[in-house]
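Aim 2, interim progress. The first record below pairs a target sequence with its C-alpha cells.
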Amino acid sequence: MTPADRDQRRRAGAFFAAVLLAMFAIPLVARAHAELESASPPDDAVLDSPPSEIVLTFTEALDTAKSHMELFGPDGAQVAAGVADPDNDKTMRIDPPVLAPGAYEIKSTAFAAHDGALKREVLTFTVNAPSPSPSPTPAAPSASAAPSASPSASASAPPSVAPSPAPSAGGDASASGGDVILPILAALAVVLLLGVFLLRGRSRGGGGA
C-alpha cells in the first residue's frame, strides 16, 4: 500500500468519525433545549368564550426559578402572569381573570433545567364578543282567544229587578168595610134597645089608666 493510499484511508476514516459524532451530537443539542410542545389555547385560536386557564407545555424540564410568562390584553397592558408549575416542571400556567372580548398575546421565557438554554415564545388568541340573543317573536293570538263579534246576552243584560208586590185592593176594602159596619151595628143595637125601652114604657102607662 502506497503512502497516498494510507493518507486517503485516514481522511476517509476521519470523515466517517466526524459524521458519526455529528449524528450523536445533534440529538443531544436538540434535547438540551426546552421546545414548546403544546399550548392551551393554541396559537392564533379564536374563542367564543374566554379561557379559564392558559397552559404551555415544553419538551424538557424547566428551570422553575427563571421560567415565566405574561398575558397582555388588547390595549397592550399586562393582564396576568404565570410561572412554571411546581407539580409539573415541563409546564407554565396562568389562571387569568375573566377576559373581555379582544385580541390577547402570550409571551413566555423558558430556561431549560438541563443546561439553562433560553427559549422565548410569542402566541396569540382572540376572544369573540358574545352574539346577542334573538328577541322572542310574539305569538299570534289563537282563534279561541279572539273576542266574539256578538257579545253574550247573559254578560251584557242588566240584572233583572223583581217588582215589589203591590198592596191588595181587596184587603184594604175588607179592612175599611169592617171599620164602617161595626159602628152601624152598634147604632142599630142602640136604636133597638131604645125601641124596646119605649115600648115597655108605653105598655106600663096604658095599664095604669
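The second target in this work package is listed in the same format:
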Amino acid sequence: MAIDRYVQHIRAIAKQYRTFEKQIDATLIGKRQYEYYLFGDDFLGNIIEQHSFMLLRSLEKRGLNHLADKLLLGLINEEFEHKKKRGFLVVEKNNPTHNSLVITQRNILKKFVESDLFLQTVKKKDGAFIQQFYYSIAAGIAMIFATVISFFATQRYGNFTTDLFVVLVVSYMMKDRIKELARYYFSSQMSRKYFDNKSKLSIRHQEIGWVKEAFDFVAEDKLPEEVMTLRSRTPLVEAENEVYDEKIIMYRKLVNLSREDIEKYKEYRLSGINDITRFNLLHFTQKMDNPTIPLFVPDSEISYEKLQGDKVYPLYFILHCESEENTYYKKFRVLFNRSGIKDIKELN
C-alpha cells in the first residue's frame, strides 16, 4: 500500500539524517555548526508532522482514514516523542501562548533551512544616473532660453528699467515651464528603455542575475493588438467603456539570469528560478459597495421570495511572457468584493 511505503521512506530518511549525529564532533565543527544540525533535525520533524497530518485529513474526507490511521498516527507520535527527548518545542493542549511560540519558531526554522531555495535581492532605481543627466539637460535648455531673453532685453531696454523687470519675470516663468516640459519629455522617453527598479539576484552572496520592474497606467490605444484581442469586452462592457474609461495597469518585468554564474553554485543543481509576483487587492476593496444585495423572485401569483446575491467586481489579468525560445499569452479573471476573492478562473 502507498501509505506503507510513505511511512517506510519517511522513517528511513529521518533515521539517516539523525545517524549523522554520531559522526559529528561538536568540539571540532564548532557550537554554531552543531546548532545548525539540530535546527535541521527539528525542521525535519516539523515537516514530517505537517505532511502526515495533511495526508490523514485528506483520507478522512474520503472516508479512507481507517486504512492508515494506525500507521500515520504512529509516525506522528514517534516524531512527538523524539522532539520531547531532544528538547524541541511541541504543541500543547490548552496552552495558546506556548503554541503561538511554536508557530513562530517553526516559521523561523522554515526560513532558515529553506534559505538556499530563496534568492537575496538588492533593489535600486534603474537608470538613476541617466535620469539626472537628462534632467540637467532640461535645466540647461531652460537656462539658455532665460539667458538669451535677458541678453536681448538688456540690449533693448537697458539696465534697471521697468520693461526689463517685466521681461525678466516673464522669462523666468517661461524658463521654469520649459524645464518641466523637457523633464516630462525625457521621462516619457526613458520609460521605454529604463525601468522603475532593478534588483540584483544572488544565492549565498553569489550573484546570478538581475530583475527589472516597471509599473504605469497606460492608454488603451497604446496596447498591443494581441492584448486587446484577448481582452474581448462584451458589447455591454464596451458601451460602458465609452462613458467610463477602463483603467489599464501595465506591469513589466525583465529577468536576466547568467548560466555561468548559476553553475558556480555547487550546493544544489539549479535549472532556473521560481518568480512569484504578488498583487494586493486590499486597496480596491476599501471603496467597494456592500458585498451582498437583496434579490426578489416570484414564489407564486400572490407571494415572492427574498434572496441575497453577491455583488462582485471583475479584474482581468493578461500575461504576456516572452523568452528567447517562445512567447505565450494567458488570461485570468478575478471576481471579488469587499468580503474577499470569490473566484479565480483562467479564460480561453
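Strands lie at 120-125, 197-203, 206-217, 249-257, 292-298, 304-310, 313-322, 327-337, 340-347. This observation will shape the mutagenesis plan for the next reporting period.
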